User: What shape does this take?
Amino acid sequence: MPADPGPVIQALLAEPTLSARYALGAVVALVDAVNGSATLNAHIEAVKQAAVADRIVITKLDLACEDAAVAALRQRLARLNPGADIVGGSAALDPYSL
Assistant: This one.
């Protein structure tokens, strides 16, 4: 089950002990290309993750059978969070680019 990102973000920004040691650089959400739509339908926490993310990485693109389903997922994510960068993840994705 996805976790609500709000309390984690709030703790990093507002808790003096944490904010003194850590800086929140970006929020990255991973969305499974195969099961992402179903997860967004079933779990409000997944919607919250996508809504607050600076970047959304769609994973398992190599396993997704239908290009139309991936395009629909991409459009849905763009509507949830128009300001997020949405990228397709692969084994070659550079973690430092996130």
Summary: The chain has five helices and three strands.
